[in-house]
DNA sequence: AGCGAATACTTAGGTGGCGAAGTATCCTCC
DNA sequence: GGAGGATACTTCGCCACCTAAGTATTCGCT
């Protein structure tokens, strides 16, 4: 197979930094993981922009939709899952609410709480973006046979399992 | 093997969004790629913080060091490789220069240009961070046998090759 | 019952980053 | 050789996000 960016990266590394110990295969795997993630991030950004959402608006709608209780959550839950601060979440929700994609409902049983709920419009635009985004992923996946895809999935899972052990 | 975050994610998906067509294997692969990248990003952040660098300071030093001409580049080249704007680059370099990790040298043959050069201190702290960071990667890679690692690398490359075709 | 700690969210102040405009320098072509 | 455009970097105004402090409410303990 022709070389990819990662091959060139690893070759350069070997030339210039002989003294820094490193395993080519390990470096190759993780650099490629990073390149794939980066590519998909950009593809997502394009897809999402096409339907008229910013990256972070889509992300917020997305975690709101893929929960056990789809379309409904507290700001704190969303913030945790998105890896943003509570303050950041307030800002995002302000924007989403103003755009009409979510609404804030005061919780009756605990008046400190707020329930974030997606609106019909929010759900519709999220679905549009999802669809476009899925196409980019499917397109990439076509580089592999079904069998290869299954193997890749199995090996990646061994790695994620370990990473989740490390995180506790 | 026990289930990981991705298994739970895919299961939830199937329960709640039956109507949105999606391929489990494809979704599994790309969600795991994202989870691994996310884990390593955080591991890097911890490693880098330990030696006293912020994330973006390290990133900047890093691309500066792994070039064909290690330790020397123009701001524009760095900005392109880091995916930040020219303006953002100016800001980063201001900080790095103030901290004493790089210096700006006016280019003599073309006085519009500036040459960014790493200092001894900058190189030293980058190496420290590199070392710590490599350990997190090696630790993850130990989840796989050497043979599995090679297979994983081969399959990932098929995907990166396609992604690079798409980018032109 | 009531006081202090904990919880849920919002506001305030500061930082990195972006796009666009600005400044300086170099290249092209008549 | 001089005008117009391209190039390289910086400055400016704005935005999303962070940490820390603030407000409101509920829980826990005596």
UniProtKB/TrEMBL annotation, chains A, B:
It holds the Pfam family MarR_2. Signal peptide: none annotated. Residues 26-161 form the HTH marR-type domain. It comes from the Bacteria. This is MarR family transcriptional regulator.
């Amino acid at each position: 197979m022709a070389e990819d960016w990662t091959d060139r990266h690893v070759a350069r590394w070997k030339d210039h930094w002989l003294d820094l110990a490193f395993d080519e295969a390990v470096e190759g795997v993780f650099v490629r993981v990073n390149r794939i993630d980066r590519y998909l991030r950009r593809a997502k950004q394009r897809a999402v922009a096409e339907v008229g959402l910013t990256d972070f608006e889509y992300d917020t709608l997305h975690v709101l939709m893929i929960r056990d209780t789809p379309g409904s959550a507290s700001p704190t839950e969303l913030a945790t899952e998105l890896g943003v601060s509570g303050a950041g979440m307030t800002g995002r929700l302000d924007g989403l609410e103003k755009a009409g994609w979510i609404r804030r409902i005061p919780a009756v049983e605990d008046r400190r709480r707020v329930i974030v709920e997606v609106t019909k419009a929010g759900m519709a635009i999220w679905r549009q973006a999802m669809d476009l985004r899925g196409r980019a992923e499917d397109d990439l996946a076509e580089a592999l046979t079904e069998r290869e895809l299954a193997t890749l999935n199995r090996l990646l899972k061994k790695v994620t399992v370990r990473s989740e052990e490390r995180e506790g």
